[in-house]
Amino acid sequence: MPDPHALKTLLASEPYWTALAMKTQGSRFFRALGEALDAADAPNRRRLYETWPDELLEFYRRGLRLEAAESGPGEG
Questions:
Q1: Under DSSP, is residue 27 helix (H, G, I), strand (E, B) or coil?
Q2: Cys-Cys crosslink for 21: which of 4, 28, 29, 59, Cβ 3.0 to 4.6 Å?
Q3: Which domain of life does this protein belong to (predicted)?
Q4: DSSP code string of 28-58
């Protein structure tokens, strides 16, 4: 079932960690989209989010885990 809040969540987020998760954990297709997301301006980022909201939300969640792992225990 699609997440009705996916687009809102993605638009409010910092794209760095989502793009990093896509580039490091995604298939070749999603690695390329991660590169595109990393380079996109706000209107193009929105287009990516609108086209693949559920998939990008999954990478957003993975990005949160990457960010938490990098900050280490007790620093977040």
A1: coil
A2: 59
A3: Bacteria
A4: HHHHHHHHHHHH--HHHHHHHHHHSHHHHHH
Domain residue spans in the chain? 7-66
Helix (H) or strand (E) holding 6: helix 6-12
| Local structure of 1: helix, strand or coil | coil
List Cα–Cα distances, 50 to 19, 28, 65, in angstroms.
15, 20, 23
> Mean pLDDT, consecutive 10-residue segments, the chain of 76 residues?
86 97 96 97 96 96 96 68
Supply the pLDDT for residue 74: 62
| The residue type at 50 | E
In 3D space, the residue among 3, 4, 37, 40 whose CA is nearest the CA of residue 20 turns out to be: 37
